[in-house]
Amino acid sequence: MQDFDHIYPRVDTDSVKWDSIKTTYGKDDLVPLWVADMDFMAPAPVIDALSDYTKRGLFGYSLVPDALYQAIFDWEKTHYDYSLEKEDILFSPGVVPSIGVAIQAYTQPGDSILIHDPVYHPFANMVKANERNLVTSPLGIEDGHFVMDLTDMEAKIKNNQVKMLILCNPHNPGGRVWTKAELIACGLLCQQYGVLVVSDEIHQDLVFAPHQHHSFHTLAPDFADFSIILTAATKTFNLAAVKLSMVYIKNKELRAAFQKVQSTTEQNTINTFGYVATQAAYEKGEPWRQDLLTYLAENSRYTEAFFKEHLPQVKVMAPEGTYLMWLDFRAYDLSPKALEDKLVQEAGVVLNNGAIFGNGGRGFMRLNLACPRETLAEGLERIRKIFG
Ligand SMILES: Cc1ncc(COP(=O)(O)O)c(C=O)c1O
């Protein structure tokens, strides 16, 4: 079993999480609990597969191995009862690049695209960068968890003639694992108004029992007609650097339109290291993932208990999935900038400012739990000293 308590030095490794702190904040003695990657070593079978490939020293153009397709079929079927065929699967260098392709393939400049607020900030960035009209629907908070406001969504869809919903399933930054009933209700609404759903499922494998991820395509037989799924092994197995994601499209016309945009820039031929790593992760990474989930769940409980005991003014949204925790600092009545400054300059901890995820994130911060407990404990202790 991997020792998730082990601290690997990441400073001076060109890590965004660790090495951009100095340029961003002018300090290098900060505890980084921000950028969504993990301070853990990748699964040993993935490292072995990449080493074997590297040692061969032959880096010519490569085909997509049949074994990779098989690994994807098996993974999706075993965990989510989701059946895929080879033709349903396209590859892309990332989920965010795929969002850009989907926007260009299925909408025109000026068209309205709906996202939730708050939500993973590149959704809004991609909509705006592609000169589409950004429409947001605020998430409510019930029993300490985010919920969709279907009445608001319907009004926004009707009033703005929304063409596309970009859905975060499970939800970043709230760690919400939408239930089957919630997803079906959302899907039926989109179906009724002809809204195409782009379901970002990159956090699908990071879900804590008893919660269960549901791929949008498995909710009803005809949901695949008006939706596409974006996912990857990179978030689950800490492989962001290999830049490979999958796009699952069952509707032939939607697939052809996506491929047409991809082909304009040859974005469909991908880094072979991505193929190798993804195949190994899906074939042999499951024991590592189970251990990871146990460790993350314990980090989540530890953090929740810490805030309850030492800083009850900070309200914690305990994640049902993802390794991200949404913290409500509104009791301190600070502007987003003042809150971030206090955390960085006084406490010495870097979290993601909630305001980047939308207006609903003002006064909140997102904490990344995927680090050794000692690092987490140090970060929390620093927050307690300043906010306690
Ligand atoms: C919801 C969500 N989508 C996409 C990504 C990034 O995906 P990629 O690196 O494949 O572009 C992240 C990374 O944190 C994420 O949280």
UniProtKB/TrEMBL annotation:
It comes from the Bacteria. This is cysteine-S-conjugate beta-lyase. Its cofactor is pyridoxal 5'-phosphate. GO terms for molecular function: cysteine-S-conjugate beta-lyase activity; pyridoxal phosphate binding. Its EC number is 4.4.1.13. Belongs to the class-II pyridoxal-phosphate-dependent aminotransferase family. MalY/PatB cystathionine beta-lyase subfamily. Residues 35-383 form the Aminotransferase class I/classII large domain. PANTHER family: PROTEIN MALY. It is an enzyme of class 4 (lyase). Keywords: Lyase, Pyridoxal phosphate.
